[in-house]
Structures are given as structure tokens and as C-alpha cells.
Design a protein that fits this description.
CATH superfamily of the largest domain: Peroxidase, domain 2
Strand content: under 5%
Low-confidence stretches: 1-45
Number of helices: 15
Mean pLDDT: 88
Number of strands: 4
Structural class: mainly alpha
CATH architecture of the largest domain: Orthogonal Bundle
Distance between the termini: 51 Å
Radius of gyration: 22 Å
Strand order of the largest sheet: 1-4
Bound molecules: protoporphyrin IX containing FE, 2-acetamido-2-deoxy-beta-D-glucopyranose
Order of helices and strands: HHHHHHEHHHEHEHHHHHE
Length: 361
């Protein structure tokens, strides 16, 4: 009996939302009209309309509370959106892309991409129509909030809004511009230079691999004697064994347990916090791990091919001075978030997963 009425309530709520989603925007004071959907939003923001940036912050913070991994996913998402034809929400699309075909999500270099449900949740909880954010803006703001949260407030960079959503989303276009983990240093440098990012920015942004996870296929080349780039032998052995049980590994060896770290010969250097509370925190420990040659991806290791140049210099600086990394990472993320969208047409997408209409091209 209780179950039934709860279900009935949920059903009427769904119908209410579906009804209002189909209504044209009403400008006056941002009210879309009465109804359950609106009331629901009011309740969560304490009885008054919520600034859209606060909505993003609230939902991202909640999501991270449930699973820290979501924060890492959102940070990767902005890179993978903005790198491909600029920040246009193209990475979110499931259906109706301009020109048809497979969308970016199906690109090989987008393996493991996540956080889409958080983006959808934000879009569905934004208040009045004139305060709507584009899907592209949501991706940018969500990454900002995730970075702020995972860095414990240490990385706090400004981002604007006003982006519009693109209509193109192509898997092959994404694979053509997103760097695979097997790139060498020259390829990484060229890839970043093509977007206007220098070596120091490449090194700063690679520090995002301080958090999050990777599938075995993303680092299998490092464990295979035919293809391996130099890797600490004790780390390689520990990883090769552990991956049999855990095919998804944290990017940062800091986040492994002590038994693994010891087996892998990881040295807990001054400034590195390996306590449970510090797991998944964005700090400069990526550089400690990389300079100990204990990182997952070839692309991370490759930065060591420039030890006497800009990359090595930046890694040493960021390892020595966490503040310096916070600043440079924030600056590079702000710049990434400004990559200008390019495409045949732009719209404010209603559902971040679906291009609004297919018949306007
Ligand atoms: C420099 C070139 C880069 C390469 C080759 C690269 C490659 C990869 C690969 C292969 C994964 C693992 C995917 C998987 O197996 O699930 C990954 C994860 C990740 N990357 Fe990168 N990446 C690069 C730069 C960046 C940048 C610039 C950012 C953000 C600023 C970033 C943020 C992340 C994050 C946060 C994860 C973990 C995602 C999660 O746990 O859901 N990466 N990257
Ligand atoms: C990050 O999110 C967690 C979980 O929701 C929350 O407890 C914490 O206060 C947040 N930290 C910052 C700096 O916003
Ligand atoms: C190692 O890499 C080589 C060359 O790509 C490949 O032919 C071989 O199958 C790989 N070995 C394993 C065990 O995956
Ligand atoms: C998207 O919405 C914004 C804000 O309401 C508006 O200024 C802009 O013209 C819209 N863009 C398109 C392409 O519809």
C-alpha cells in the first residue's frame, strides 16, 4: 500500500516534469508556472531561486559526496569536450548528430568517459529559462567545481558562461584530435601546440592524472616487453600482478594501499599524504610519482624525455611547490574552458544528449 502510493507520486512527478519540459519559456520573473517540478527545485534551494552556478556547485558537490570518482570524470570531460571543435557540449551527444554516424562517446580515446548523469541532473534542475545554461557551459562549470572540491579549495579558477551547444559530434573527429596514451613527447607537444598550449601547460594539465582511474587497455603497452617504455621494474611487477584482479587502476600510486606501494618501491616523500582522507585529493603528488617513474601511461612517462628542458623543469617546480601547480593548473583549465566552439550551427540544447532538431541544417 505504501509502496503503491510512493510509485503513484513518482509517476505524477514524472508527468509533471515532462509537462513543463514541453512548455515554451515564460519570461516574467522566471516562473515557468506552478507545479511539482518547480516546487521540487524551490525546496532544494531554500525557498528562493538558485543562481545557476550554485546549482552546478551543489549538484557536483553532492555527486562527489557519493563517489569521489565522479569528480575526476568531470575534469576529464571538459578536456575531451573542449579539445574537439572547442567547448560545445559535443562530447555529451548520443543521438541526432549533424552528418549522422557515431558520436564522440564512441571514440577509442574516449574509453571510460563518465559523469554524464551529473551533467543531465544539473540541466534538469536549473531554474528559470533566462537563467538556463547551455550544456557546454555546464561541462565547463562542473569541471571547475570538481577541481575546486577535489583540490580542497586550493584550485579556484574563473570561468565565464554564454557558450552555445554545437550540433556536430563525431567519433572519428574525436580520435583524430584527442591524444592517445601511447603518444610520445613530440606528439604530445604538437598536439597541445595545435590548441595553443605550450610545454609547461602540457605538464600542468597532465597533473590531472593525480586523480581518477584507467582501464588496463590504457596502460597495457607499459606491461608488455615488446612495447614497454621504461618503467620502474618493481612498480611494473606489482602492477602486472595486481591488474589481474583489478583491471581498473587508480592513476596515482598514492591511492593504492600500502602493501602495493611497498611492493612497487614507492617512496613517500615529504609533502605526500598517503592517509585515507587524502585519497583522491588533487595535489602535486602526480609529479612525485612521475619523477619516481611510477605512473600508468606512456604519455605521462614521456614528459621525462625532456628532463633538462621545459617539461622536466616544470615537473621539478610543481613537485617542489604545490602552490605553483595549483596556480598553473587553474590557469590552464581556465584557458581550456575558453577554446572557441567551431561548427556549422549552434543551439541551446534542451536535452544534453540529443541535438534539438535535425531538419534545420
Ligand atoms: C596529455 C595527454 C593526455 C592523455 C594521453 C590522456 C590519457 C588518459 C587516459 C588513457 C585515461 C584513462 C582512460 C581509461 O582507461 O579509463 C585518462 C584518464 C583521465 N584523464 Fe587524461 N590524458 C591526457 C590529458 C589529460 C588532461 C589535459 C586532463 C584534464 C585536464 C586529463 C584528465 C584525466 C582524468 C581526470 C582522468 C581520470 C578519469 C576518471 O577517473 O574517470 N587528462 N587520461
Ligand atoms: C567537497 O565535497 C564533499 C562531499 O560532498 C564535501 O563534504 C566537502 O565539503 C566539499 N569540499 C569543498 C572544498 O567544497
Ligand atoms: C605485446 O605487444 C605486441 C606488439 O604490439 C603484441 O603483438 C603482443 O600480442 C603483445 N603481448 C601481449 C601479451 O599482449
Ligand atoms: C542561447 O540562449 C542565450 C541565452 O538565453 C541566448 O542569448 C542565445 O541567443 C541563444 N543562442 C542560440 C543559438 O539559440
Amino acid at each position: 500500500m505504501v509502496k503503491l502510493s510512493a510509485r503513484a507520486l513518482a509517476l505524477s512527478l514524472c508527468l509533471g516534469l515532462a509537462f513543463f519540459a514541453g512548455q515554451p519559456p515564460v519570461a516574467a520573473h522566471g516562473h515557468r508556472g506552478p507545479g511539482l517540478g518547480k516546487k521540487d527545485k524551490k525546496d532544494k534551494s531554500g525557498g528562493k531561486q538558485e543562481d545557476p552556478r550554485d546549482t552546478v556547485k551543489r549538484i557536483v558537490t553532492e555527486a562527489i559526496g557519493g563517489d569521489k570518482g565522479v569528480g575526476a570524470a568531470l575534469i576529464r570531460l571538459v578536456f575531451h569536450d573542449c579539445w574537439v571543435n572547442g567547448c560545445d557540449g559535443s562530447v555529451l551527444v548520443d543521438t541526432k548528430p549533424y552528418g549522422g554516424g557515431k558520436t564522440e562517446k564512441l571514440a577509442e580515446n574516449n574509453i571510460g568517459l563518465a559523469g554524464f548523469d551529473v551533467i543531465d541532473k544539473i540541466k534538469s534542475q536549473l531554474d528559470s529559462p533566462e537563467k538556463q545554461l547551455s550544456c557546454a557551459d555546464i561541462v565547463v562549470l562542473a569541471a571547475r567545481e570538481a577541481t575546486y572540491n577535489l583540490s580542497r579549495g586550493n584550485i579556484d579558477y574563473p570561468v565565464n558562461t554564454g557558450r552555445t551547444d554545437g550540433v556536430v559530434s563525431s567519433a572519428s573527429a574525436a580520435d583524430a584530435v584527442l591524444p592517445p596514451s601511447t603518444f610520445d613527447f613530440e606528439q604530445l607537444k604538437a598536439n597541445f601546440a595545435a590548441k595553443g598550449f605550450d610545454t609547461k601547460e602540457l605538464v600542468a594539465l597532465s597533473g590531472a592524472h593525480v586523480v581518477g582511474v584507467a582501464r588496463e587497455s590504457s596502460f597495457a603497452d607499459r606491461l608488455n616487453d615488446t612495447t614497454a617504455t621504461p618503467i620502474s621494474p618493481d612498480y611494473k611487477d606489482a602492477l602486472a600482478e595486481d591488474v589481474k584482479k583489478h583491471p581498473i587502476q587508480p592513476n596515482n600510486i598514492r591511492d593504492k594501499d600500502e602493501t602495493f606501494r611497498d611492493k612497487a618501491g614507492y617512496v613517500v616523500e615529504t609533502g605526500v599524504d598517503t592517509s585515507d582522507g587524502a585519497k583522491g585529493v588533487m595535489d602535486n603528488t602526480y609529479y612525485h610519482a612521475n619523477l619516481q617513474n611510477r605512473v600508468l601511461f606512456r604519455s605521462d612517462w614521456e614528459l621525462r624525455n625532456d628532463m633538462s628542458g621545459q617539461a622536466g623543469n616544470a615537473m621539478e617546480t610543481f613537485k617542489r611547490d604545490a602552490r605553483e601547480w595549483y596556480t598553473e593548473f587553474g590557469k590552464a583549465m581556465a584557458k581550456l574552458s575558453q577554446l572557441k566552439a567551431q561548427g556549422p550551427r549552434f543551439e541551446n540544447r534542451t536535452d544534453c544528449k540529443v541535438i534539438n532538431t535535425n531538419n534545420k541544417y
